[in-house]
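Quarterly update, task 2.4: iron/sulfur cluster-bound model.
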Amino acid sequence: MSSRPKLSVYWASSCSGCEIAVVNLHEKLLELDEHFDLVFCPCLMDTKKADVEAMPDGDIAITLFNGAIRTEENEEMAELLRRKSKLLVAYGACSFQGGIPALSNFHSRDDHFRTIYGDNLSLENPARVAPRRRTEVPEGTLDLPAFYETVKTLAQCVKVDYFLPGCPPAPHQVWNVMEGIISGRPLPPREA
Ligand code: SF4
């Protein structure tokens, strides 16, 4: 088993550009790998939610959480990763302040569903079917996470230790965070 501190990078309501910012660390990725054990990153690896659930609380040294909170699943993952992480970073504009997904807060959930599944003639959906929380089909019950009325920031759902703004944060900013932890220097005071 690796003795390196564990790192996770999670996306909620996100475009995945924040993950690309990590990839854009280029050769610094090798240094990152020397110092951290990447244990959870759905964009890059197949670790399951159940694997995270099985970890002791606080087992992950740092989680970079990108994307806003749009659905019940996003919030559930925020709570899970908060519990499992010593440091939780709201990583990127969407996680920090809602970003582009939060522009949808100018309209209601019903407006969105009407526009996307009702009035959208480019979508092949003659019955105008919209996603539902629960659907009975011959094979059983299909469950979808609830789609919230509004988009929330990460800090509106769980306690956040640090905020790293940017859309996405620039690679040198990401590296400053990781390098600060690697160096062992005292970290800046956490958000109250
Ligand atoms: Fe994408 Fe920007 Fe949001 Fe990151 S902050 S997930 S790059 S829209």
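Highlight for this quarter: The longest helix spans residues 72-84.
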